[in-house]
Write a structure and sequence with these properties.
alpha+beta, 8-stranded mixed sheet, 5-stranded mixed sheet, 5 helices, 13% helix, globular
């Protein structure tokens, strides 16, 4: 292998509950508008023909408990609490009936969003990258192995900001369940270990400010936490 001119930032290694070895974060796929109530609060309708996706950079992800500065270029930074699915085996063109066998585990995650930039770019029919792929804008909690959790069902998903509940729903409200998402996404990508799928956020998203502390959870999984410091 040739020498490199410089080193790239390392992607995070996510703790796995009860294990010494961590899960290396590879690609991050995010599902849009997967809760009807959230789509409605954003003035959108759910596309029930098929799910849609956007991606976020692994190098921009941080682990739960991080303290990060309020990001530049926005005056409307939003929290989005999500279930993350960690892929543990190759998956390509898999039917929903077998797709779940490729799941390594599950985690709580935050998809932080520069909402003003996302909405501005969407109105101009441009990509959402400035709004979504924010430095330190994906926050990943510890992974619980699939066999130790049992898979998504009607578990409660919630998020608090400074101790006040902002989001409160159940995973059963997802428009597209995990098996369908993995099956559909595997029709476009060779999914592999290290890939994460963030499955969308329920209603109740809203702005946060420097000094806020966020804590979110899903029944049976380790919580995710984030502290926002002053802008740099």
């Amino acid at each position: 292998m040739a020498d490199t001119l410089f080193k790239l930032p390392a992607a995070p290694v996510i703790a796995v509950k009860g294990a010494r070895a961590g899960y290396p974060c590879g690609r991050i796929f995010c599902v849009g508008r997967n809760y009807a109530a959230h789509a409605a609060e954003m003035g959108n309708e759910v596309d029930r023909e098929a799910p849609f996706y956007f991606t976020k950079s692994a190098a921009n992800a941080v682990l739960a408990g991080a303290e990060v500065p309020y990001p530049p270029g926005t005056e409307n930074f939003h929290h989005e609490m999500e279930l993350a699915v960690a892929v543990g085996a190759p998956l390509f063109r898999a039917p929903p009936e077998t797709a779940m066998a490729a799941v390594f585990g599950y985690a709580c995650a935050l998809d932080m969003t520069r909402r003003d930039l996302q909405q501005r770019e969407r109105q101009k029919q441009r990509p959402w990258d400035l709004g979504k792929d924010v430095e330190a804008g994906t926050v990943l909690g510890p992974i619980t192995r699939a066999a130790d959790w049992g898979g998504p069902g009607a578990q409660r998903i919630w998020l608090e900001v400074n101790g006040e509940t902002r989001q409160d729903a159940h995973l059963s409200e997802m428009v597209w369940p995990v098996a369908h998402l993995l099956s559909h996404l595997s029709g476009f990508y060779h999914l592999r270990p290290g890939d994460l799928v963030l499955t969308g956020t329920p209603a109740g998203v809203g702005p946060v400010a420097a000094g806020d502390r966020l804590r979110g959870g899903i029944d049976g999984l380790e919580p995710v936490e984030l502290a926002l410091t002053a802008a740099e």
